[in-house]
Each structure stands twice: as structure tokens, then as C-alpha cells.
């Protein structure tokens, strides 16, 4: 099986941006900032971004920004990483964003806020503490029978 | 509670979660109850080749999955220990499709590392990226130095 390895800082950079968007979405959904329609727009943006990175990770805007603006300013990575763990995290993110999408459809601010809070927690811990969803959740989900295959 | 402090609560909660994750992650604990491991039955490998022999003093048995971003780094670290210390062996089992093994040993995160004594009995287990000084202290108890 041939997998093209990636710079591990790419997904963490992406998680940093995701954590900012999701925090803003949470703040808007609970009325601390702007209003519910802003929360909906932010959640819809997250939904599109997660779906994009699951379907076509290479053309994803985060990756383009990282490749052209961030990576040239960094040293070469010490090691490259298998892309499958971060892709797994993106799928987990997408499922939470879908929950947020249902919240938008039902115009339920609570659902949008809950989804945003979960996305924020996962993305924030990944970006700043090196937390890895694939390491912590794959076996739990699989053992609970929530993952097929 | 007003909504702004709810945002603060989320932020503080996330920070606390991160700090305690860093603190608790990779600490191991002793395993009582002498369960012996059959590396052959588990299908243990080293560099993707079958590896069934126990270390003379200790064996590090690493459980990994395809979706585990931290596993390759831990594999390199533990392989280095094996290289540096005589009588220590490092082997790996990929449990991506072996949920039966994960359930049997109650493994819920990867990497999970078992420290085995020369008879193959589990004496110590670590969930996550091992904290090296703690792991070394356990290995020294088994005579690895």
C-alpha cells in the first residue's frame, strides 16, 4: 500500500484555524457575539471545510495556505506523517459539523452551540496539545460498533 | 450565567483538559494478575516481519492502528531503546482490524504498550506516548540497563 506522507504541521495548522472558527461559532450561537445567523454561517463554513478535506484534501484552502505561506517560513520537518490519522480526525469533525448542520436546519441554537463546542475542543487540543483523535477515538468507536468495515 | 462567561468556561475547560491530557497521557501502571502473552498467537511483527521471540530481560509490546498519528514516532523511540539496551525486544501488533484483541486486553487508545517480563507476563502497561523516564524506571526493575 503506498501512501503519500505529509508534513505533520499541516494538519495542526489547520486545526488551529478550525478552533478559531468553531470558538467564534460557539460564541455567536449562545449570543455572546453577533447573532444566530452569524453562528449558522460559521457552522456552514465548518461543514464545507470538513467535507472538503474528506473529499479532496489536496486542494483544501488550509493546505494551500500552509503550503504556500507557512511551510516556506518553517524549517524542514523532522519527520513526515501518515495522512490517514488526520483524515480520520477530519471525518470525526465532519460528523460533528453535520450535527451542527441539523441544528441550522432546525434553527436550534443549542445544537449549533453543542456541535461548535465539540469541534472547538477537539481542534484546540489537537493544535496546542498534540491531542490525536485517531489515537484516542478509533478503537473506542470501533469497539462500540459505530464504525463499519 | 451570562453568555460571555460561558465562552470563558469553554476556554478554561479546554485548557484544563489539555494540561491534564499532557500530565496523565503516557503514564503507565502496574499490571497484577500474571497474564502471559503468546507473541505468535497475537501475530506480533517487527519492521512488518513476524517477530515471535521474547527479549531475554524484557519485551515492549506496542499496539498500533492505521489511524494513530503518534504510533510511528513511538515505534522509532522504542526501537531505539531496543538498539541501545541488550536483552530488550520491541515488537508491534496492528489492531486496526483486530478489535477482538483490543477488546480482550481492554485497549481503548493507541499506542498502548505492554512491558513483558522474560516469561512473557504483562507487568506494566502504558496508554499513549510513554513518558520515557517512567518507562526506563520500569525496565530497570527487570534488569535492563
Biggest sheet of chain A, in brief?
none
Report the sheet-strand fraction of chain B. 15-25%
Number of helices of chain B: 5
At CATH level 2, the architecture of chain B is 3-Layer(aba) Sandwich
Query: Biggest interface and which pair forms it?
Result: A-B, 33 and 35 residues
Report on the biggest sheet of chain B.
5 strands, mixed
Identify low-pLDDT runs of chain A.
none
CATH domain topology of chain B: Glutaredoxin
Oligomer: heterodimer
Helix-strand string of chain A:
HHHHHH
Counted beta strands of chain A: 0
Give the low-confidence spans of chain B: none
* Strand order in space, largest sheet of chain B: 1-7-6-4-5
What share of residues of chain A is helical? over 70%
Q: What topology emerges from the helices and strands here?
A:
The complex is a heterodimer of chains A (149) and B (145).
Chain A: H1 9-29, H2 36-55, H3 61-70, H4 84-105, H5 109-129, H6 133-143
Helix pairs in contact in A: 1-2, 1-3, 1-5, 2-4, 2-5, 4-5, 4-6
Chain B: H1 3-24, E1 28-30, H2 39-42, E2 45-46, E3 49-50, E4 58-64, H3 71-84, E5 88-94, H4 99-104, E6 112-116, E7 122-127, H5 132-141
Parallel strand pairs in B: 4-5
Antiparallel strand pairs in B: 1-7, 2-3, 4-6, 6-7
Describe this structure in words.
- The complex is a heterodimer of chains A (about 150) and B (about 140).
- By secondary structure, chain A is mainly alpha-helical.
- Chain A has one domain.
- Chain A has helices at about 10-30, 35-55, 60-70, 85-105, 110-130, 135-145.
- In chain A, helix 2 packs across helix 5 and helix 4 packs antiparallel against helix 5 (about 110-130).
- The two termini of chain A are about 20 Å apart.
- The mean pLDDT of chain A is about 90.
- Chain B is α+β, with helices and mostly antiparallel strands and about 140 residues long.
- Chain B has a single domain (about 25-140), classed as Glutaredoxin (3-Layer(aba) Sandwich).
- Chain B has 5 helices and 7 strands; from the N terminus they run H-E-H-E-E-E-H-E-H-E-E-H.
- Chain B is elongated.
- Classes of the chains: A mainly alpha (about 150), B alpha+beta (about 140).
- The interface of A and B includes residues 130 and 132 of A.
Amino acid at each position: 500500500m503506498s501512501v503519500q506522507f505529509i508534513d505533520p504541521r499541516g494538519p495542526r495548522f489547520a486545526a488551529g484555524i478550525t478552533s478559531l472558527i468553531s470558538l467564534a461559532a460557539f460564541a455567536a450561537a449562545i449570543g455572546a457575539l453577533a447573532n444566530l445567523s452569524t453562528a449558522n454561517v460559521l457552522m456552514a463554513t465548518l461543514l464545507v471545510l470538513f467535507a472538503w478535506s474528506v473529499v479532496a484534501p489536496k486542494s483544501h484552502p488550509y493546505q494551500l495556505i500552509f503550503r504556500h505561506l507557512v511551510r516556506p517560513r518553517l524549517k524542514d520537518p523532522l519527520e513526515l506523517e501518515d495522512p490517514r490519522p488526520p483524515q480520520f480526525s477530519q471525518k470525526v469533525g465532519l460528523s460533528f459539523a453535520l450535527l451542527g448542520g441539523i441544528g441550522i436546519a432546525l434553527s436550534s441554537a443549542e445544537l449549533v452551540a453543542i456541535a461548535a463546542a465539540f469541534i472547538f475542543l477537539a481542534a484546540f487540543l489537537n493544535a496546542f496539545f498534540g491531542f490525536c483523535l485517531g489515537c484516542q477515538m478509533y478503537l473506542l468507536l470501533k469497539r462500540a460498533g459505530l464504525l463499519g468495515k | 450565567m451570562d453568555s460571555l462567561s460561558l465562552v470563558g468556561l469553554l476556554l478554561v475547560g479546554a485548557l484544563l483538559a489539555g494540561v491534564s491530557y499532557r500530565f496523565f497521557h503516557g503514564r503507565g501502571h502496574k499490571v497484577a494478575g500474571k497474564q502471559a502473552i503468546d507473541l505468535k498467537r497475537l501475530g506480533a511483527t517487527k519492521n512488518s516481519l513476524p517477530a515471535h521471540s521474547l527479549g531475554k530481560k524484557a519485551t515492549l509490546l506496542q499496539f498500533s492502528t492505521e489511524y494513530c498519528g503518534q504510533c510511528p514516532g513511538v515505534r522509532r523511540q522504542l526501537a531505539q531503546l531496543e538498539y541501545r539496551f541488550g536483552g530488550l525486544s520491541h515488537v508491534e501488533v496492528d489492531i486496526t482490524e483486530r478489535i477482538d484483541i483490543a477488546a480482550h486486553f481492554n485497549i481503548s487508545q493507541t499506542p498502548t504498550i505492554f512491558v513483558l517480563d522474560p516469561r512473557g507476563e504483562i507487568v506494566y502497561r502504558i496508554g499513549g506516548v510513554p513518558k520515557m523516564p517512567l518507562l526506563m524506571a520500569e525496565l530497570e526493575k527487570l534488569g535492563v540497563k
